[in-house]
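User: I'm putting together a small comparison set for a docking exercise, and I want a reference complex before I start. The sequence is below, and the ligand is magnesium ion. Could you produce the 3D structure with the ligand included, as structure tokens?
Assistant: Of course. I'll restate your input first, then give the structure tokens for the complex.
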Amino acid sequence: MSWTPIGKPAPVRENANLTDYAAARRDFSWEAERRGLSGLPGGHGLNIAYEAVDRHARGPRRDHVALRWVDRHDRVTEYTYRELAERSGRFASLLGQLGVRRGDRVFTLLGRVPELYVVVLGALKAGCVVSPLFSAFGPEPVRQRLNLGGAALLVTTPELHRRKVAGIRDSVPSLRHVLVTGDEDGPGTSALSPALAAASPDFEIGPTAPEDPALLHFTSGTTGTPKGALHVHEAVLAHYVTARHALDLRPTDVFWCTADPGWVTGTSYGVIAPLAHGATLVSDEGEFDARRWYSVLAAQRVSVWYTAPTALRMLMRHGADTASGYDLTALRFIASVGEPLNPEAVVWGQEVLGRPVHDNWWQTETGAIMIANFAAEEVRPGSMGRPLPGIEAGLLQRGPDGRALVTDGRVRELTGAGEEGELALRPGWPSMFRDYWGDRERYEKSFSDGWYLTGDIARRDADGYYWFVGRADDVIKSAGHLVGPFEVESALMAHPAVAEAGVVGKPDPVAGELVKAFVTLHEGYPPTEELRLDLLAFGRRALGAVAPKEIAFDQHLPHTRSGKVMRRLLRARELGLPEGDLSTLESVP
Ligand code: ATP
Ligand code: MG
């Protein structure tokens, strides 16, 4: 739980959205925050798409740019709020014509293309449940999720259809329509563009109860088979509030969220939150490339940037020189999510990008950011930050299986500084998942004694900052110590040769488990025996008893498509065990 203060305080203190944390928590109420949203006209409830586009399209922001799309050839196309409202209205009308009804599931299998925004918002207007899939999924994970969710309609591209959908279409009996982007129908598909052109742009959103289902998001599958977390329209209240508090977002911002649209971050913050604020959303069709990303930040004058540790680590591998060629003066706030953010990355942000990286924590199930380092508060490198206003977090004493110990239906909350327990949240925030689709039992099992149990292990310091230790499934039990992989990985990353590390437990007759590290090296560091011994010694000096006993070099650590190191796969490979569900594994180039 050690941290090094970074030279300067976070630079936006004086004009940040949240300047007095204690007061904001004390005075907070979701009911009061609701006044920042409009609600449907005539008191007909709350609809995410109305808050995101229609209300702006009817007000003074109608000609403000909602979406600025950069295609893979760097061409920029802009859509105002009015245009986005109109196009999504057309898609909602089209769904009606096709007989797709409220509550039906509409899936997308799309990269970052304008149609994605039109379809997601249009389907929400029509009261359908939207489920975005990673466009990099192969046919089998696509089939599995379409069937799990009982998809009625899918929107994809002609190419993705040919490669991933055509072959499995017959084994998804619920799927009534497949629409493909562009102008041409194909076998079993209808073209989206002419259908949109023919549909009415004037779509009146029907009455929508805040508890009506809206989004179905599959988890990253880091620890096992992905689960479908169901969210409701009320979630928009949390998207709206958390973006202001944790991302310091304002209506004047140019906001770029790099998350893939197939992951919950790609919807909550890649679509809904910035639009709910009336800000300008940047969407980049291109793949990750250090120079490309810097040039998007510079050319689009991005002011708030939300990204992930794996991307930051890749930028770090490219060195500070690459960054120095770009004008990043518009950048006011940088945040990261999805995986533990190593302290090096926070400091690197401050030194190389001129802003520290603000880590924050949440899950598919929580629907929105729950714990964060705030703009106006001290950033503690290595910490996830403190709970947002409106969010009550706690740490629960753990049992032998590593999860919270439940005795006669009761749990025990840990209150001492530095104690380590399962991170839990008090249910009741608007974007909390309302079900695991088709698995009510599993859903109910995630709650105990008035808490939602997250499956993550954390510590809290005396000032209330939370420190991620590991997923309950990843924590290593070695010679009487419980070792969090993140702590070991971060210690190794402080060595100049180490670009990334994945740490797992390996059964050992004496210690129970021993700590084994897989290490990716920076360019220019050959994987020699000498370096390996140096790293082992480096680890021992930093970590003592919990240092890795074995180190292997691996230039291609397995990642999920949302960018997380898949430690369970490293472990399975090490032990020769079955590899389990690999549908979300990022294919290695
Ligand atoms: P699955 O539940 O299928 O195993 P997953 O948990 O990776 O997959 P997500 O909901 O995408 O699926 O990810 C949420 C998890 O990511 C958190 O529970 C936590 O383990 C990790 N995580 C997210 N943000 C952070 C963070 N800032 N620091 C550390 N870990 C984080
Ligand atoms: Mg999870």
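The chain is about 30% helix and 25% strand. The two ends are 35 Å apart (CA to CA).
User: Thanks, that's exactly what I needed.
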